[in-house]
Amino acid sequence: MPEEHFYSLKRQVAVITGGGQGIGEGIARRLRAAGAQIAVLDVNEANARRVAASLGGLGLACDVSSDASIERALAQVRQELGPASILVNNAGIAGRTLLLWQLEERDLDEVYSVNLKGVFLMCRAVVKEMMERHYGRIVNIASIAGKEGNPTLIPYSCTKAAVICLTKALAKEVTQMGNITVNSISPAVIETPILEKVAKETVAYMVSKIPMGRMGTVEEVAALVHYLVSPEASFTTGQCYDISGGRATY
Ligand SMILES: NC(=O)c1ccc[n+]([C@@H]2O[C@H](COP(=O)([O-])OP(=O)(O)OC[C@H]3O[C@@H](n4cnc5c(N)ncnc54)[C@H](O)[C@@H]3O)[C@@H](O)[C@H]2O)c1
After folding, report:
1. Which ligand 1 atom sits nearest the alpha carbon of residue 92?
2. pTM of the prediction?
3. Which of 107, 116, 117, 245 sits between 20 and 30 A of 154, alpha carbons compared?
4. What is the biggest distance separating any 2 CA atoms in the chain, rounded to whole angstroms?
5. What pLDDT, in 10s, does the model give residues 53-99?
6. For ligand 1, mutation pick of 93, 167, 207 (most atoms within 8 Å of CB)
7. Would the pLDDT of 25 be above 90?
8. Counting atoms of ligand 1 from 1, which one is nearest the CA of 91?
9. Is 140 a domain residue?
10. Ligand 1: does its nearest atom lie under 6 Å from the Cβ of 91?
11. What's the structural domain count of the chain?
């Protein structure tokens, strides 16, 4: 195979949730550079449009916690770009950084509705058309918090653990439905705007746990996602890939 074809995403349509900034934006840029047509779905419509415009793609308002909002956005993706062959469930929120007994019920509900329900609804909306076409790549952005449990981030940690499990179960459901893989990744701290909403002490705690002694970059995460959504990554499914500078021990 000629070198320029390695990990090529030509003729593929990639839907990236939360692609209006941070890790999602980095993933959108990387997948576009590999040849994919990009649809950026974000609750922040201005950012979705800004990123998509710079990539010649489609930027749409979408709240992943709402099935109606997802259906509206995906109908437009299908009409303008075609069915999605790649789905990156990246939209996520950290929630308030407080101890469990300081949190209110709504803190859990808010984080759950974006981080877990959002992934569930997006997968449900896209996987059927992947099954019809016998091809698809889904990557869910979990977190090291979902493996280890970060203090002051209990709703976040729990929903990310659930995303890892959703990934494993869905991967098994679709193994006989064609060349469809479903994987997750678990980044440690990555330098993005999400950290502005997390208490400084919590960020310091998370960085101190990383043997490499630094935060990861958006580009490093995008490179891993690029591999996982490529046609070459065809014998790997249901896995949670580490990208934690050595923090993860399993
Ligand atoms: N930055 C980190 O240290 C880190 C570490 C591990 C995992 N993650 C995960 O990576 C993903 C991206 O994080 P980031 O650091 O780029 O965060 P970010 O806050 O910079 O970006 C998140 C994006 O998601 C969008 N979004 C939020 N709620 C949404 C909703 N309901 N519907 C659609 N879009 C929505 C936001 O508008 C934003 O554009 C998240 O799932 C996060 O949990 C981040």
Report:
1. 41
2. 0.98
3. 245
4. 58
5. 999 999 999 999 999 999 999 999 999 999 999 999 999 999 999 99
6. 93
7. yes
8. 24
9. yes
10. yes
11. 1
